[in-house]
Amino acid sequence: MSELETAMGMIIDVFDKYSGSEGNKQTLTKGELKTLLEKELPNFLSSGKDKEAVDKLFKGLDENGDSEVDFNEFVIFVAAMTCCCHKYFEQKGPK
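-> structure tokens emitted (95 positions)
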């Protein structure tokens, strides 16, 4: 598989790894999202346990208001984070 195909598969695998432990296998609950962030993006939250930040992020991701983050909502988050990282490293530039 190409690098992009591998990356896409990894995104699916990460979502599947954390979804469903508290219910619906097709979505992430707030608790599942918090665990995912702590394990997969440990530097994203300053303390890794910042409840207010998780609540705010969850509310922003849950576009349809069903109190769960589905795969489409999760992919939008991953894409937005990737864009932010790209912009950060682009601005930092070579020294």
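The chain has one domain: 3-92.
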